[in-house]
Design goal:
The chain has 46 residues and is an all-alpha fold. The chain contains 1 helix and no strands.
Length: 46
Amino acid sequence: MIQYLFWRVTPMISVLVLAAMVIDTVLYLAIQPIIPPTGHGAMGGV
């Protein structure tokens, strides 16, 4: 039972992490030309 839940949840977590990385990168590239280089400290440490 636990192994089944593990194999069901792990792919979703990895997909969410990958999506978060992609979204963070897109937002960083989109905002970079607007704000100064020292203004993106809130973007997850990018």
